[in-house]
Amino acid sequence: MKIDLSKDFVEQLKFNSHGLIPAIVQEVDTGEVLMLAYQNREALLKTLETGTTWFYSRSRQELWHKGATSGHYQEVQAIYYDCDADTVLMQVRQAGAACHKGYHSCFHNRITPEGVIQEEDRSTMNEARRLGNILGELAEVIEQRKAEMPEGSYTTYLFNKGLDKILKKVGEEASEVIIASKNEKREEIVYEVSDLIYHLLVLLAQQEVDLGAIAAELAERRK
Questions:
Q1: Which long-range contacts (CB under 8 A, 24 or more apart) does 123-127 make?
Q2: pTM, rounded to two decimals
Q3: In this structure, are residues 118 and 109 in contact, taking their beta carbons and an 8 Å threshold?
Q4: How far apart are CA 35 and CA 170, in angstroms?
Q5: What number of CA atoms fall less than 13 Å from residue 65's CA on the CB side?
Q6: Using an 8 Å Cβ cutoff, are 24 and 106 in contact?
Q7: What range defines the domain where residue 188 resides?
Q8: What b-and-e string marks burial along 171-209, b requiring 16 or more CB atoms within 10 Å of the CB?
Q9: Does any domain span residue 112?
Q10: What's the pLDDT tens digit per position in 68-122?
Q11: Does 134 reside within a domain?
Q12: pLDDT tens digit string along 29-44?
């Protein structure tokens, strides 16, 4: 997927004496840092043209396309550069593993008081972070619907009907989750839990309770 970004910023960057600039790669949905590599102007321009990351290998002295051999491409979502214009940040959606050793992130060696340990794949943590981001985005959309009340929106319909209707839907969706779980059908569970979460977010918005309060309560319980 080609990303429609201006190439003018490239001229603002400060490449080092070898014509390179460090590029930090970050998972856009979780914020996890995946890797650090280097780009020259050509690699950066090819990244803009293709929408997937290209880098420059200092050891081989040639361009390389991330994922060309492994299939683990990085689809670029956004590009930033820092205040000194000497480092770029690539926010991507990573297919498969970023690390050539099979880890999702190259930064899998964790330093502890006992020494260095290699962390196992953190996909569960990553998915949890991704869910948190999506919930935040959904809550914002619901708040926007509450403020603007656009016609034809189901969320508008719920707010117009009021608390009793919203509570009824929460109860109905909770029952659907129970039934799907009793049937032991994974797809139904995913679908019904998603419905329940949406209606719970509507209820929170109607009651003017933000997700931050829920996060604080869960964090306190975790202690």
A1: 125/30, 126/27, 126/29, 126/30, 126/32
A2: 0.57
A3: yes
A4: 42
A5: 15
A6: no
A7: 123-222
A8: eebeebbeebeeeeeeeebeebbebbbbbbbbbbbbeee
A9: no
A10: 988 899 999 999 999 999 999 999 999 888 998 888 899 988 887 877 776 655 5
A11: yes
A12: 888 999 999 999 999 9
What total of structural domains would you count in the chain?
2
Taking the CA atoms of 51, 56, 61 and 67 in sequence, report the sign of the dihedral they define: negative
Backbone dihedral region of 212: left (phi > 0), alpha (psi from -120 to 50 degrees) or beta? alpha
**Nearest 10 degrees: Cα torsion 79, 95, 135, 159:** 90
| Distance of alpha carbon 198 from alpha carbon 85, whole angstroms | 41
- Do the domain assignments include residue 191? yes
13 and 98 share one domain: yes
Count of other CB atoms within 10 angstroms of residue 162: 10
Q: Strand (E) positions, the chain?
A: 21-27, 33-39, 54-57, 62-65, 74-81, 88-94, 109-112, 115-118
How large is the angle between the packed helices 123-148 and 186-206, nearest 10 degrees? 40
Residue 157, number of CB atoms within 10 A of its CB: 13
Amino acid identity at 70 = S
In the structure encoding, which two tokens stand for residue 52, read together? 């997937």
Helices 186-206 and 163-182: crossing angle, nearest 10°? 160
- The Cα–Cα gap between 220 and 223 comes to 5
